[in-house]
Amino acid sequence: MRFHLLHCPVLALGPGRRVGLWVQGCSIRCEGCMSRETWPPGGGESIATDRLACIIEGFFESGRADGLTVSGGEPFDQPEALMRLLRSLNVAGVRDILVFSGYKMENIALRHPGVSGLVAAIIDGPFELGGETEACWKGSANQAMTLFRPELSEIYGAWAEAKKGALQVLARGREKFIAGIPRQGDADRIRESIARP
Ligand code: SF4
Fold it and tell me: Is the CB of 126 under 6 A from ligand 1?
């Protein structure tokens, strides 16, 4: 799998303390996307999915994470690698996996029918500039959350009610990344401020 960033803990992209995996490559290319550095499919780093699953499992085994959030980039642009990773993590007992996708849920379900048994929730739909929303879990009002694990409905229900708030700045060397979803009106200012040396 090609990925842009792997970090733990991530506190602003899903309920609780999470592993954050930002995959590399997005063919959807929404106007106003905050993650344009993840678009080129050849960017980022390449890692075998077995190795990636092992690293992620390590975060859970050491008690540092309650869940995994897969974002990007577009996770379903690497469908074989994504499904392999999800299967491995399920075998290892990881139950709380949240996936963000710019594809619509009906297309995801049609193309990848097995995914609903492997994830806790999917947040779907392209980012739409102009569709401002206060919800902490989405970038534009058109996006929707589908929950697949009823036993997690309480924690996801509480998170879905939360308004936009704190973001997390992650650093890798001199590069900085934002974890979390800002208001559309704040996005450019935040990108500019983290780009400053
Ligand atoms: S699908 Fe996500 S990563 Fe891709 S362009 Fe849209 S917002 Fe950006």
Answer: yes
